[in-house]
Amino acid sequence: MNGLMDLLGKKFFSRGSGDTGRPEVRRILLVHNEQDQCESLTDFLEEEGYRVSRTRQGRKAVSMVLNGGVDAVIIKGKLLDLSGYEVASIVRRLDPEIRVILTVGDESELYGGEREQVDFFPCLLEPFQPRQILRALEGGAQK
Q: What is the tens place of the pLDDT at every residue in 110-141?
């Protein structure tokens, strides 16, 4: 996996003008299987100045991360092909600096067995306010 990281480098990020030393999040990949929620969140984020790419499938999301140009990934907990937790774990292994935010439909998704297999990710219970996503995107680096 280290060879892959060397190949990918840190081209995913642009540095912000602040003095935090953290990458500025401007390019977001939204992975969500519900069209209406996906469109409304995309519209909101674009109005806030973010560039948003979208997909409904976990495998496609991983491919998009590999192709670069992603600062953060917002993932629905349950997807059509992979679970959001699986995608989050893969993304984190590919580049630990990419911010990963999970959204879940109900509390039972927060406490499933899969959740224990991945690092901690910010998790938002749906329905959430779009401003909650902004706070998670603008928050500190995840470890």
A: 555 554 444 567 888 888 888 999 999 887 43
Domain with 81 in it: what CATH number?
Answer: 3.40.50.2300
pTM of the model: 0.74
| CA-to-CA dists, residue 45 to 8, 20, 51, 79, 142, angstroms | 26, 22, 8, 21, 21
Q: Give yes or no for a cis peptide into 122 (omega within 30° of 0).
A: no
Distance CA 110, CA 59 (A): 22
- In this structure, are residues 22 and 46 in contact, taking their beta carbons and an 8 Å threshold? no
Domain containing 66 equals 24-138
For residue 74, is it within any domain?
A: yes
Considering its fold, how many domains does the chain have in total? 1
